[in-house]
Amino acid sequence: MDSSSxxxxxxxxxxxxxxxxxxxxAVIAGTFCLVVxxxxxxxxxxxxxxxxxxEKPSPLxxxxxxxxxxxxxQNPKDEKIKQQIRQLDLDLRRQFFRRQNLADQGxxxxxVGGIVFLAALKITLAARPQQIIPPSTTTDHPPAQLQxxxxxxxxxTALIIIGTLLALLLTTSNQPPPLATAISSIKSTVTPSPSxxxxxxPAPHELTTGPPxxxPAPWPRFRGPNGLGICTYANxxxxxxxxxxxxxxWKSPEIKYQGHNSPIIWNNRVFLSGADENRRMVYCFDGDTxxxxxxxPVPHLPSPDGTExxxxxxxxxxxAPTMATNGQEVFAxxxxxxxxxxDFEGRKLWAKNLGTPDSVYGFSTSLMTYKDRLIVQYDQGxxxxxxxxxxxxxxxxGEVVWEITRGVANSWTSPxxxxxxxxxxxxxxxxxxxxxxxxxxxxxxxxxxxxxxxVAPSPVWAKGMVIVAQPxxxxxxxxxxxxxxxxxxxxxxxxxxxxxDICSPVSNGELVFLLSSDxxxxxxxxxxxAKLWEHDFDEECLSSPTIVVDKIYVLCHSGVMFxxxxxxxxxxxxxxxxxxxxxxxxxxxxxRIYIRGEKHLYGIGNK
Length: 607
Description:
34 strands; alpha+beta; five-stranded mixed sheet; elongated; Methylamine Dehydrogenase, Chain H; 28% strand; 2 domains
């Protein structure tokens, strides 16, 4: 055999040794891609909503959920049905995110598997035998060695694919049981009892609307649960110094996009938003470390009325409304009218524009949630131009559940949620009305025509009365058990001293505390409206006060926090300094305070 023939034989032998491993890899990779395709198809079919549930199907559509909601409409006070709706809704959401996660990871695996398949196929075609090479000394790779090499390649490839599939299944398996399990337990209770009433059971996930001592742990909106400015934890810090670092758990890096909105808390996550004329941003911080877990932009969408915000008012800016969360979604609203929802991992669920608000001093009304709905008080314009709206928006889909037109002017107040006589009410105040609405359908329950222009302090709730402030003018306590126009019948008392102009009142039930922007703190009796005392801190105050058990926390514009006894006589307990100016109200949770300064977010408390 000449050297040329020997070289060709060696080359063919070297190619042949890769043929079997490459062919095996191509077969396994192709099979893997087929399995992933089948898995993604199954996942897609599982995520299709029940037919006939709605004209615009959503991932949460379910005939059983629709049946339960019909039952609830017939028995609105049936706590058992409410709990079943909440549980099924939660399971539907978790299943949706599991399918979404599976689709994302499956698509990536299909892409990688396709690349491996094409590469192996190319090697197989290049290495396929052109002629039979006798098993002689022409090659250093006898058939037994080639077979062993092929087996090793096949086993290695198979292990990689199996491991990848297992990893995919494990990352998506930490979910609730299949919906069939939950639905099977619900089917038996969808049909009402002969009497039309269902057995009432406790609802552990019910949004609490009772006295402060029953409020839930998170700080999910402006001024905490239900917007009342009440913290029930006793282990809240009373001493810190932002300059020396005493009592400061962490201080975030400078926040690029600033805003006047206050932080909100759910579990160990702290949320706030920021914006300038070109960009709107939502931030999620780790409550233990202050590190940014994620930050996501909010797109600017065209205003439905075709108008655009030319320039934000300096005192409110582009991001004054405080965000809100229901523990599953988190919502942000900006002065441009842009509204968006994210999940807790930073995925944008939806975004829309409510229209550029017509507001003299800029838009700053904060958001609130009611069960799975987002409530937006969108007051603007004048009282007779029918621009003001109150929206209830489905938190997960962004669809408007109901909306009403309000005959009020632009305001800077935020709504609160109360419970009166076993029924919940959304309380709003603006020129000229204080009004209560049914959160289920938006129907007006009562109204009092007592407000004037430029209303900024939000209402507060104490001892069956809604307490509202007409800036620098009058404080009113309104009994909340009325129907229709209660202007002449349900004003329990009024006062005209120490009435706040910006900061919202706060009450522990027995006493009502008012804080004016010049730093004067005034105390009234809730029951009869008798003035007990006033104290001047000689500081400018733009943040609303908070009651923490038996203390009242007053944060001043300079960053100084005064802590006084929430009692019938003034007594200063301590004061602490942030070392940075602030216009925002603090957020509280167990052992912690979070304060947004002009440039940084501070975590105050113990590790």
